[in-house]
Amino acid sequence: MTPIDFQKYTVDAPTYDEVSARYQAIHEALDAASSGTGGAEAFIAAVEEWDAYRRELGNWSSLVSIRFHQDTANEEYKKAREYCDELRPKLTDLAVTMKRRLLDCPFREQLAAKFGELIFELWTCDVASFDPVIEKDLVEESKLDSEYTELVASARFEFQGETLTLSQLGKYAEHPDREIRHAAAKLNSDWFAENQSAFDRIYHELVQLRQQMATKLQYDNFVPLGYKLMQRIDYSQNDVEQFRAQVRDEVVPLCVELRRRQAENLGLDKLYAWDEGIHDTSGNPKPAGDHDWLIERATEMFADLGSGLDAFFDKMKQQHLMDLKSREGKAGGGFCDSLPNLKMPFIFANFNGTKGDVEVFTHEMGHAFQCYCSGDQPLSDYLWPTTEACEIHSMSLEFLTWPQMELFFGDDASRFRHLHLTESILFLPYGVLVDHFQHHVYENPGASVEERNAMWRELEAIYLPWRDYGDLAHPASGRRWQRQLHIYGMPFYYIDYTLALTCALQLWVRAESDREATMLDYVKLCHRGGEAPFQQLVDSVGLKSPFQPGCLSEVVTAAKRELGLE
Ligand code: ZN
Description:
By secondary structure, the chain is mainly alpha-helical. The protein has helices spanning 16-34, 39-70, 75-103, 108-115, 118-128, 135-153, 166-169, 178-194, 196-216, 222-229, 237-266, 291-305, 309-318, 355-373, 387-400, 406-409, 413-443, 449-463, 473-479, 485-489, 495-513, 515-528, 534-540, 551-562; strands at 157-159, 162-164, 322-325, 335-339, 344-351. Among the domains are: 6-130, Butyryl-CoA Dehydrogenase, subunit A, domain 3; 230-285 and 385-566, Neurolysin, domain 3 (Orthogonal Bundle).
């Protein structure tokens, strides 16, 4: 693959007629193979041609999405995204029609021998979650999602003599001065309160729209459709419910203790929401330099870690496949996307000078490395696994780079590791709360905005019993969830972080005693991409499924020991 310069990289947008003609040609090749000319071999060749074309289309839509996130105020990028959003359901229709045909084709056995049985299960999910009758709804859904992204990206704050974006304001959540932390939290709350009606409306419309799509596709509500869209094939809603109960029973009490200890370390009688981001009076550890310095340290880190990560990172740098600095107009959050034509990924983040920069960076690099490793999987459906498995690659790399953290944090590295583990444990109840909330929301599509906020408050009391918003009116009104972009744009994704974390923690425990073997397993998992469903992938590298009884308590016990909480 010839290296490119991503900053200058462009791809022409396809028209519907072009795509449709290509599909027509592939269908004709499949017809010819089925009617005797060429047989299975020619049939598989046509499937492979289709797959290569899907990669091309995927490459284009990734690029459009990346550019929009890089500059949400750019009119040209916005138009390109709108065009892509309009075209996507039509392309999905063509793809689903093809999948339906392949699910019921004369060479199914030969296809299974070549690509594995899994492909049929994945395609069955795709076929069950789309019909042209929801085309308009999908376009509308994308529009609402973009509206949320643009709204969040438009936030500006005058604080401490600077103009800040929401991501940049975020660094003050870790400020050692309580007054400053509170003032930043207040600004944040006030901004969300000012835009409350928009945030309320966008989500209300999304919920109605998703219920409407579920009804059109003959589901009772959006929950089963959401699971199909996530291609969950080897576990059920019931398994997820059991897992949430385990977190509630085993992790919440530990988190109450962690929060109690945190207040004690900070010398506070009571921990308010604006205190939760900082863990001791000396402030959280911070990387000792800015973006360019971080990239230099990262180069050393990957050189030290080896396992192919070093050479891979060089390629990412050479081709400018990273956009990590915060700036005006840029979307919030961090993500990794694939550019299948280049056989390379792209990573996106919003560095703000906190330890989170290092965490987000290693996280996205974990995704990126997996995507790179699985670039040669025979079908693009296997480029990524389902997302709970994807998050293992990212979260595990956060833990597997622990020995290199001195590069970023110097003498504060052990404090960083302690904090990283503490916050990982504290994340589990929040993660399942976001999931539980969405189940309530989509099971009760007729609920009003206020009823929905009441659902959140009720669940928040179960999973985050220590939480006190004090005078922060917006989150205190039951709207803290409005800051979680996944709730708007990626329904049911959130539990995946907690499932993956349960796996990543197992790798962390193992790495503490045998680093080399653990790295080998990590790389093996990355190469497997999405060629197997979640629990099989996990099992193939000797990890326990989070749904297996006792799995969570084992990792929690190890974390307690490390954190001195036994
Ligand atoms: Zn991730």
